[in-house]
């Protein structure tokens, strides 16, 4: 008999017995009660057919195992992990940073547009500030993810500037610490530095494909009111500067005080803005661009991610928000959003 239920060893798992022993399967669809029950039925149906053939003297088929099925299933939907920093009777050992990055599938999360910025921000913190505190296996995994990011940027031809800065910062961290933080291995240090230089070279060789003259509408063909509405929804001031530098007509939109006021109110609180807003003036007379840039240097931008990690307060599981997880107490489950900085704090980094 397979054990179908919410096991005390981990939340909401399904256990199926195979030739090699018990296999743990994870559900694919959180809206279903047991997403992998069909795997058990498939095995049971094959067993029943084998028994009938055995009674009739026919050749018995090989008993299907869940090994390959489990591997593909785990690779697709193993997007949560139990968070534990203390060894208990039920859970021996604790979750490490490298294990969390691997089990939460950060490598494939790079291909997801919703999670791309989250992974890039985490790598920005790790490669720039915490590289010396990482184990060798964790560093190797991060460099593998970094190479995937570079390949995605080359293919999509977007986010070239931020990723170039990320590679520069990683190379600077390697150069400052030399090979002392990677087991005093000069050979390994050289290999990683060569990998970074190779990735930077690939980024520098990108040639942006110009749009062919197909007669379709472009941004400059839109009415000024529509262009302003688009710019008012841009969250990064660097995009505004790049657009304003593209041609003389767009430079006027870069000086729109309403747009800079929206950026200030989006990224900073009222108290933070008042730090540099000393006098009571009308909005059009306030130097909103200057206030924004000063707040940006002092407080940093607001971090907003389409999809981010969550920590369930009920069963202590880390999971991606869009994927969800099979909670032990779904009716009363409360989850907390985990920013990249909070993620590192979980591992005392």
Overall mean confidence score, pLDDT: 76
What is the number of beta strands?
Answer: 7
Tell me the distance between the termini: 44 Å
Question: Structural class of the secondary structure composition?
Answer: alpha+beta
InterPro entries: F-box-like_dom_sf, FBX25/32
Biased composition (Basic and acidic residues): 36-57
Protein name: F-box only protein 32-like isoform X3
Region (Disordered): 36-59
What do you see in this structure?
- The protein has 349 residues and is of the alpha+beta class.
- Among the domains are: 78-206 and 305-346, no CATH class; 236-299, no CATH class.
- The chain is 49% helix and 8% strand.
- It contains 15 helices and 7 strands.
- A hairpin with a 4-residue loop joins β5 and β6 (317-320).
- The model is unreliable at 1-9, 27-40 and 59-77 (pLDDT under 50).
């Amino acid at each position: 008999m397979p054990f179908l239920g919410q096991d005390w060893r981990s939340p909401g798992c399904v256990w199926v017995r195979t030739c090699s022993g018990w296999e743990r399967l994870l559900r694919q669809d959180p809206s279903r009660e047991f997403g992998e029950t069909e795997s058990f039925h498939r095995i049971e149906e094959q067993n029943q057919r084998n028994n009938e053939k055995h009674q009739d003297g026919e050749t018995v088929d090989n008993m299907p195992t869940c090994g390959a099925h489990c591997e593909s299933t785990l690779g697709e939907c193993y997007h949560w992990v139990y968070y534990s920093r203390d060894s208990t009777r039920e859970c021996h050992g604790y979750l490490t940073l490298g294990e969390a990055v691997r089990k939460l599938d950060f490598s494939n999360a790079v291909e997801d547009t919703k999670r791309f910025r989250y992974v890039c921000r985490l790598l920005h913190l790790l490669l720039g500030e915490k590289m010396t505190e990482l184990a060798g296996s964790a560093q190797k995994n991060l460099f593998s993810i970094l190479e995937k990011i570079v390949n995605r940027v080359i293919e999509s031809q977007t986010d070239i500037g931020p990723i170039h800065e990320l590679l520069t910062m990683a190379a600077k961290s390697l150069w400052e610490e030399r090979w002392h933080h990677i087991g005093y291995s000069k050979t390994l240090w050289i290999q990683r530095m060569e990998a970074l230089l190779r990735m930077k070279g690939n980024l520098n060789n990108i040639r942006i494909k110009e749009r062919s003259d197909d007669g379709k509408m472009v941004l400059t063909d839109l009415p000024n009111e529509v262009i302003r509405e688009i710019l008012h929804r841009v969250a990064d001031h660097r995009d505004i500067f790049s657009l304003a530098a593209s041609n003389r007509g767009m430079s006027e939109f870069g000086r729109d005080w309403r747009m800079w006021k929206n950026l200030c109110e989006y990224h900073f609180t009222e108290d933070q803005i008042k730090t540099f807003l000393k006098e009571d003036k009308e909005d059009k007379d306030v130097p909103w661009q200057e206030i924004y840039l000063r707040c940006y240097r002092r407080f940093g931008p607001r971090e907003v991610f389409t999809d981010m990690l969550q920590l369930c307060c009920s069963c202590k599981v880390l999971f991606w928000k869009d994927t969800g997880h099979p909670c032990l107490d779904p009716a009363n489950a409360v989850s907390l959003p985990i920013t990249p900085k909070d993620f590192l704090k979980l591992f005392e980094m």
